[in-house]
UniProtKB/TrEMBL annotation:
Keywords: Acyltransferase, Transferase. Residues 70-229 form the Glycylpeptide N-tetradecanoyltransferase N-terminal domain. Residues 243-426 form the Glycylpeptide N-tetradecanoyltransferase C-terminal domain. It comes from Castanea mollissima. This is Glycylpeptide N-tetradecanoyltransferase.
Length: 433
C-alpha cells in the first residue's frame, strides 16, 4: 500500500464480438479466448480479498445510480471485534512504539530491506528514521495503529502496516479517515498470506476509534482506483542518474550536452523567496486551505496540520515561500519531502537522493517560476532527482521544466467511500507519503 514505481499496462479492448471484426471470436479454442479465460480466472483470484471489502468494485464502474459517500454505515462500537485477528501460529502482533530508538531502527531496517522496489529491482525506497517518525506521529496519532508482526521464536520484526488519522474533504463533506501506509512483509514470508490479515487488523483498530473510512495508494491496480497518477522525474544530477541506470542518455545526446540541458541557476530568482518559519504557519494555512478548496478530494488542513506536515525538518520536508518585499504578504508556497532510494548492486553509488513535490500554491509568482526555484534549492541541497505526480496543477509545469514521465503509476483508493466517477489527476489535491 505504499507507492510503487511499477508500470501497469492495461489490456487492449477487444473489438466487438461479431465474426467480421473478430474472426476468432466464435472459436473457443482460439488463443485469445484461452488467454482471456486465463486472465479472468487470475483476476478473480487476485482480488478475492478486496471483493469482500467495502470498496468500489470493478463491476460498478460507470454506474451513476450509486450514491456517493460511505458504502457501509458505521457499526456500533460494541459490535467491533475486540480481540486481534489470528495470525499463523509462528507469528504474533506487536505495537511499534516509534518513540523508541530500538523499535524505530527495527522498522527502518525492515522497510530498507523489504519495501517497494522498481520492476527491474535496481532501486528500493529507503525512508529515514526521522522521516518515519514524522510520517507516523502527526497530532492526534494512535500508537495502536503502528502494527508489527514478530516471529514468536526469534522476536524478529517481519511485517509492518500503519495508519495515521486525517481529515479529508470529498467535495463538500469533511470525513475523518485513516491514511494507511508502509504495508511491508519480509521477502521470505510473501507466500504466507499475511497482508490480508494485517489489512483487516489495521481496519479493526481504526474502527475502534470510530473511524470508518481510509485513503491509501498502491502501484498495483486493486478494486477500484479513484484516480491514477503518473510519476514525472526531473534530473538534477544527470550523470549520476545515467551511471546508476535510473535514466538513459537520450538519442544523439552526449553526457556533456545532457548536463548542460539540465543545468539550473545557482540561486532562486524570485524576490522574497525564503524558507518557511514557525511564524508563517497561520499565513501558509490560509493560503493552502484556499488553494485546496478547488479540488474534489483534498486534506482539510488546520494550523496544527500545517505546522506538523510543512514546517521544514532537515532531510525530511523542505518548505519555501514568497514574502512580498513591499507588503510582506505571503503570496506563494512550495514544498518537497525527502525520500532516498537504495541503489542495488552498484559499486560506486549506494543512495539516490530524491525530492518529492508535496504541496505548492501560487497566487502571485507564476507556478512555473516557483517550481523552478524549488528545483534550484533542491539542486543546491545535493538532490539527484526531483519527482512529481501529475496531481493538482502540476501538469502545467512538468514538460516546461524538463520533467520526463516515469514508468510508474500511482493509484489512489478510498476505503468504504464511493466516488461516483473516477477523477482526473488534476482534480486530486492529496499527496500521500
Amino acid at each position: 500500500m505504499g507507492d510503487n514505481k511499477s508500470p501497469s499496462g492495461s489490456p487492449k479492448e477487444n473489438p466487438d464480438n461479431d465474426s467480421d471484426a473478430n474472426p476468432l471470436a466464435k472459436d473457443d479454442s482460439s488463443l485469445e479466448t484461452i488467454v482471456r479465460k486465463f486472465q479472468d480466472s487470475m483476476s478473480v483470484k487476485k482480488h478475492k480479498f478486496w471483493e469482500t471489502q467495502p470498496v468500489g468494485q470493478f463491476k460498478e464502474v460507470g454506474d451513476s445510480s450509486l450514491p456517493e459517500g460511505p458504502i457501509e454505515p458505521p457499526t456500533p462500537l460494541s459490535e467491533v471485534k475486540q480481540e486481534p485477528y489470528n495470525l499463523p501460529t509462528p507469528y504474533e502482533w506487536t505495537t511499534c512504539d516509534m518513540d523508541s530508538e530500538d523499535t524505530c531502527l527495527e522498522v527502518y531496517n525492515l522497510l530498507k530491506n523489504n519495501y517497494v522496489e522498481d520492476d527491474e529491482n535496481m532501486f528500493r525506497f529507503n525512508y529515514s528514521k526521522e522521516f518515519l517518525r514524522w510520517a507516523l506521529r502527526p497530532s492526534g496519532y494512535f500508537r495502536s495503529w503502528h502494527i508489527g508482526v514478530r516471529a514468536k521464536s526469534s522476536k524478529k520484526l517481519v511485517a509492518f502496516i500503519t495508519g495515521v488519522p486525517a481529515r479529508i474533504r470529498v467535495r463538500d463533506e469533511v470525513v475523518r479517515m485513516a491514511e494507511i501506509n508502509f504495508l511491508c512483509v519480509h521477502k521470505k514470508l510473501r507466500s504466507k498470506r499475511l497482508a490480508p490479515v494485517m489489512i483487516k487488523e489495521v481496519t479493526r483498530r481504526v474502527h475502534l476509534e470510530n473511524i470508518w473510512q481510509a485513503a491509501y495508494t498502491a502501484g498495483v491496480v486493486l478494486p477500484t482506483p479513484i484516480t491514477t497518477c503518473q510519476y514525472w522525474h526531473r534530473s538534477l544530477n544527470p550523470k549520476k542518474l545515467i551511471d546508476v541506470g535510473f535514466s538513459r542518455l537520450g538519442a544523439r545526446m552526449t553526457m556533456s550536452r545532457t548536463i548542460k540541458l539540465y543545468k539550473l541557476p545557482d540561486s532562486p530568482v524570485t524576490p522574497g523567496f525564503r524558507k518557511m518559519e514557525l511564524r508563517d504557519v497561520p499565513a501558509v494555512t490560509r493560503l493552502l486551505r484556499n488553494y485546496l478548496s478547488q479540488f474534489v478530494v483534498a486534506p482539510d488542513f488546520d494550523e496544527d496540520d500545517v505546522e506538523h506536515w510543512l514546517l521544514p525538518s532537515e532531510n525530511v520536508v523542505d518548505s519555501y515561500l514568497v514574502e512580498s518585499p513591499e507588503t510582506h504578504e505571503i503570496t506563494d508556497f512550495c514544498s518537497f519531502y525527502t525520500l532516498p532510494s537504495s541503489i542495488l548492486g552498484n559499486q560506486t553509488y549506494s543512495t539516490l537522493k530524491a525530492a518529492y513535490s508535496y504541496y505548492n500554491v501560487s497566487t502571485k509568482t507564476p507556478l512555473l517560476q516557483l517550481m523552478n526555484d524549488a528545483l534550484i534549492v533542491a539542486k543546491q541541497k545535493d538532490y539527484d532527482v526531483f519527482n512529481a505526480l501529475d496531481v493538482m496543477q502540476n501538469e502545467s509545469f512538468l514538460k516546461e521544466l524538463k520533467f520526463g514521465p516515469g514508468d510508474g503509476q500511482l493509484h489512489y483508493y478510498l476505503y468504504n467511500y464511493r466516488i461516483r466517477r473516477d477523477l482526473k489527476p488534476s482534480e486530486l489535491g492529496l499527496v500521500l507519503l
